[in-house]
Amino acid sequence: MIQLQPVGVVHSPFAEPGSVPRYAAERANANGTIEVFPEYREGLKDLDSFSHVVLIWRFHRSDEELLTATPPYDVGMKGVFATRSPKRPNSLGLSVVELERIEDGIVHIRNFDMADGTPVLDIKPYIPDGVDADDVKLGWLEAVRPPTAVATVQEHWRRMQTNDFSYAAELLAKDFVLEWPLSNERIRGKDNFIAVNEEYPANGRWTFDVHRCVGNAREVVTDVSVSDGTIKARAITFSYVEGGVLRRQVEYWPEKYPAPKNRAHLVEPLE
Ligand SMILES: C[S@@+](CC[C@H](N)C(=O)[O-])C[C@H]1O[C@@H](n2cnc3c(N)ncnc32)[C@H](O)[C@@H]1O
């Protein structure tokens, strides 16, 4: 018989399991705490220099222990060990969360998926050793997971390469904003984005050669060579992605240049 004692309890803005946002990007700014019980607080010494912690916790609001689960995607039933379902043998949850600070036995955390009152069984520093992110396969999830911010931006450049700018604009949010600080121009909305790309005179088809594309859950930076066969430039673009679409881009061209007059009707000055 294994008996476990919680070392602390989660105080979370998510009052119910059902109010925990499903995707990490939607929880990115959620702040909460783990109140570590006084008899365990000595164990927190030296933890505060780590950026992330692993939490082992109990799905205390789950009432069933099942061997199959139906994930919240249209993929049918899966073996419970191929899911992170809360209804599982032993009802144990495991989460990697951001560690903000520790004060008086209270561990301040961000970006977590536990409901208020969740008992915490153990806390460990997160050490990303031994697994190369490029080697990780996500099984059945690969087909259904919303694309990452990096994948969304890679798809954006792939669509730009088709020169079908309406197709590219399908990946833009309604209130999309593109800024070109070097020419002091701002383009608002999908329609202006499409028009700027279609109307602006080019010497041939535009090509977009992506050298690097790196980012986190929401922000992605790309280094792209852009050419129409005659003009050749390399641009650094900061893209802000939310809900699988691009909301904002700030694009740095190599040099300052005056805003072209023939697209003035599609842009506004930055300052
Ligand atoms: C899919 S599970 C994954 C949990 C953990 N990251 C894991 O992999 O074990 C996360 C969901 O569990 C539910 N949940 C959170 N806290 C819970 C609790 N204390 N009892 C039961 N369900 C909970 C919420 O609905 C949350 O969205």
Short characterization:
The protein is mostly beta strands and 271 residues long.
Describe this protein's structure.
The chain is mainly β. The chain folds into two domains: 8-136, Elongation Factor Tu (Ef-tu), domain 3 (Beta Barrel); 149-269, Roll (Nuclear Transport Factor 2, Chain: A). 12% of the residues lie in helices and 36% in strands. It contains four helices and 15 strands. It has helices at residues 24-27, 149-161, 165-169, 189-199; strands spanning 8-11, 31-36, 52-58, 68-69, 78-79, 92-103, 106-110, 119-125, 172-180, 185-188, 207-215, 219-227, 232-242, 245-252, 268-269. Strands 11-12-13-14-9-10-15 form a seven-stranded mixed beta sheet, covered by helices on one side. It has a six-stranded antiparallel barrel with strand order 1-2-7-6-3-8. The longest helix is centred in the middle third of the chain and has 13 residues, at 149-161. The chain starts with 7 loop residues before the first strand and ends with a strand. The model has no long low-confidence stretch (mean pLDDT 94). The protein binds S-adenosylmethionine. The site of S-adenosylmethionine has 15 residues, from β6.
